[in-house]
Amino acid sequence: MARTLITGGLVVTASDEMHVDVLIDQGKVVALATPDSHGWTADRVLDATGMYVIPGGVDAHTHMEMPFGGTTASDSFETGTRAAAWGGTTTIIDFAIQSRGGSLREGFDSWLHKADGQCAVDYAFHMIMSDVNESSLKEMDTLIEGGVSSFKLFTAYPGVFLSDDGQILRAMQRAADNGGLIMTHAENGLAIDVLVEQALARGERDPRYHGEVRKALLEAEATHRVIRLSQVAGAPVYVVHVSAQEAVAELARARDEGLPVFGETCPQYLFLSTDNLAEPDFEGAKYVCSTPLRPKEHQAALWRGLRTNDLQVVSTDHCPFCFKGQKDMGIGDFSRIPNGMPGVENRMDLLHQAVVDGHVSRTRWIDIACAAPAKMFGLYPQKGTIAPGADADIVIYDPEAEQVMSAKTHHMNVDYSAYEGKPVKGRVRTVLSRGVPVIEAGRYVGHAGHGTYLPRGLSQFL
């Protein structure tokens, strides 16, 4: 394996900005030093003058090949991880799914099989618990021993994923004993189904009604509920894809009480809104996801939560469905539109634009996109930083490059971009995964099967 020297760049981590060179050997970072203090030689020298040298992104929430609503997410593990690499993300954590009546292990093995030999970058898994019972509760212990240390439960999607409060409490109690982290999709699904039925009866069928029935108060109610259940269980809880200012307030209140409560948001909630859901001629279907997009005034609370650390992580919830042939299943009935949006390729660039716009600092960009997700899910410092001993997952990033986001130029396997026509400043130039080039001078030089499965430890936020 080539010994590599990255020279001349500004190394940016979650804690520091340093004009230092980076030496890589055997796929690991071995040393950092100022250019005038070392005499290193290398097989390959990468000139990063004028560039940022940053850790590869860690996207802790993706859904490759996920079955949903009678169809399947359009990105495979091969296409999705290739697109992730193009966007500067070098680790994904996807979701294995337990089938109703099946075991956790069967679900995990099924997703391992899907990903094996397909991924361009490294990958790990959370476990979706669809059937909480004595057997699956015991299985949590063995999965943690095998490197799956987080478990997702839903207060939404009755009949598909929903767990009742008793099941959620039991899973949290088990996590309190075994050190696992319970993740929750927090919306009141039973109440939402009533509102969906009533909206359709009134003839309200366009995509915008998806946002109107999935009310912010029902996200806040469920967020409050899972926080209090976690408090009863004495366990931490991580709330996924927080979209509403009322839900942020619940997280902030709990954290002010000293509770081990954590939250993530996603770029779509930071940059898009119900204005997109209301686009005419069914175009709004492109933006149907759950939790839904909110009115623009919610964005300020999300940015503030990221600055104050009431929200710790920005993930994508990447779950793409093509506009033609998948999203259009819901023409005439918004409730039949597959829920999910593409974004795994866009996250690092959008968050750099947030730096340009003054929402977050450079170090906070790296924290919420790289270090915090690695720490939250037991991968730090192997992932998420540039330091001796870390995997050499490194992005050379041009902060002055300009680009316009478009489906014509992205690499995700989906026929539209959620950010079509959006100009952003900053672009990936080179991506290394464990020291091996994956993106080089605007070309993909990686291959399926380079990515390896990552067993994870317990959350390092606890």
Structural class: alpha/beta
Mean pLDDT, all residues: 98
The percentage helix is 25-40%
User: Can you count the helices?
Assistant: 13
Question: How many angstroms does the end-to-end distance come to?
Answer: 36 Å
> Count the strands?
21
| Global outline | globular
What is the beta-strand fraction?
A: 15-25%
Major beta sheet summary: 8 strands, parallel
Q: Oligomeric form of this entry?
A: single chain
Could you name the key traits of this structure?
single chain; 462 residues; alpha/beta; eight-stranded parallel sheet; seven-stranded mixed sheet
Question: How does this model look, in words?
Answer:
There is one protein chain. This protein has 462 residues and is α/β, with parallel strands linked by helices. The chain contains 13 helices and 21 strands. An eight-stranded parallel β-sheet has the order 8-11-12-13-14-15-16-17. Strands 3-2-7-18-19-20-21 form a seven-stranded mixed β-sheet. The chain has a four-stranded mixed β-sheet with strand order 5-4-1-6, with no helix packed on it. A hairpin with a 2-residue loop joins strand 4 and strand 5. Helix 7 packs parallel to helix 8. The longest helix has 18 residues. It starts with a strand and ends in an 18-residue tail after the last strand. The mean pLDDT is 98.
